[in-house]
Write a structure and sequence with these properties.
Blueprint: H1 2-28, H2 43-53, H3 59-62, E1 63-73, E2 77-91, E3 94-108, E4 115-129, E5 131-133, E6 136-152, E7 160-178, E8 181-190, E9 205-212
Antiparallel strand pairs: 1-2, 1-9, 2-3, 3-4, 4-6, 5-6, 6-7, 7-8, 8-9
Length: 213
C-alpha cells in the first residue's frame, strides 16, 4: 500500500514538474510577431502637392512688350528709327520675337547735287538669351531684318525705286531695370552689309536703345 502511494506521489510530482516546464518553455519561446510594413505614400496626393508648388508664369513673365529706337543727325545725314517689340519667352531667360520697323532716312551725297530721302518699313525676327550678372543682364542677340525703301541702283543714279533689302545682325546687349521697366542698349554687326547693298546703313556697326515693360 505504501509503495503504491509513493508511486502515485512520484507520478503526480513528475506530472507537475513536466507541466511547469512546458509552461516555462511556452513563456520563454514566443512566436515572432509579423513585421508591419509602413504604408506607401499616396501617389495621387504627392502629385497634387507637386502641381500646387509649380506656380504658372504670369503674362508679364512670358511676354515682352517694348520699343527699340535709334537716331543719327548731322548736316548731311538724318536717320530715325522706331521698332515696337513683341516677344515671347519659351524659357525664363530666352526669348524670340518680331518687331515691325519704321525708319526715316535722309542722305546728301558728297559728289553731285543729289540726295536720298526715303521712308523705310519692314520687320525683324530676333532671338536673345539673358545672362544675369549681379543686378544687370548681358544678352547675346541675333536678328534677321527685311526693309523696303527707295534706293538707286548706283550711288549717283537718280532712278529711285522701292526695293527690299536683307540684313542679318549679331551682337551683344546690356539691360538694367528701373521700377518695372527694363532699359537696354545693343551693339550689333550687320553680317550682310556690303558696298552694293543696304545703302540705308552707312556702316556694318549699328546701335540701338530700347525698353521692355
Amino acid at each position: 500500500m505504501i509503495n503504491r502511494m509513493k508511486i502515485l506521489w512520484i507520478c503526480l510530482l513528475l506530472g507537475f514538474v513536466s507541466t511547469a516546464s512546458l509552461a516555462q518553455t511556452y513563456d520563454y519561446v514566443k512566436p515572432e510577431e509579423p513585421e508591419t510594413e509602413e504604408p506607401e505614400p499616396n501617389v495621387q496626393v504627392q502629385q497634387e502637392k507637386e502641381a500646387e508648388e509649380k506656380v504658372p508664369r504670369t503674362f508679364n513673365e512670358s511676354v515682352d512688350l517694348g520699343l527699340d529706337f535709334s537716331f543719327l543727325l548731322s548736316s548731311n545725314f538724318t536717320d530715325i528709327e522706331l521698332a515696337p517689340i513683341i516677344g515671347y519667352r519659351p524659357i525664363p531667360l530666352g526669348s524670340v520675337g518680331i518687331s515691325p520697323v519704321y525708319r526715316y532716312h535722309y542722305e546728301k551725297y558728297y559728289f553731285g547735287n543729289s540726295s536720298l530721302t526715303t521712308n523705310a518699313y519692314g520687320f525683324r525676327l530676333y532671338t536673345r538669351y539673358d545672362i544675369q550678372i549681379g543686378n544687370f543682364i548681358l544678352f547675346p542677340y541675333a536678328e534677321y531684318e527685311q526693309l523696303s525703301y527707295k534706293s538707286s541702283s548706283t550711288q549717283y543714279s537718280s532712278d529711285l525705286n522701292r526695293r527690299w533689302h536683307d540684313s542679318a545682325f549679331v551682337g551683344l546687349g546690356y539691360t538694367q531695370t528701373t521700377s518695372n521697366v527694363w532699359f537696354h542698349f545693343k551693339l550689333l554687326y550687320n553680317t550682310m552689309k556690303t558696298s552694293s547693298n543696304n545703302p540705308i546703313y552707312n556702316s556694318p556697326l549699328v546701335y540701338r536703345f530700347g525698353f521692355i515693360f
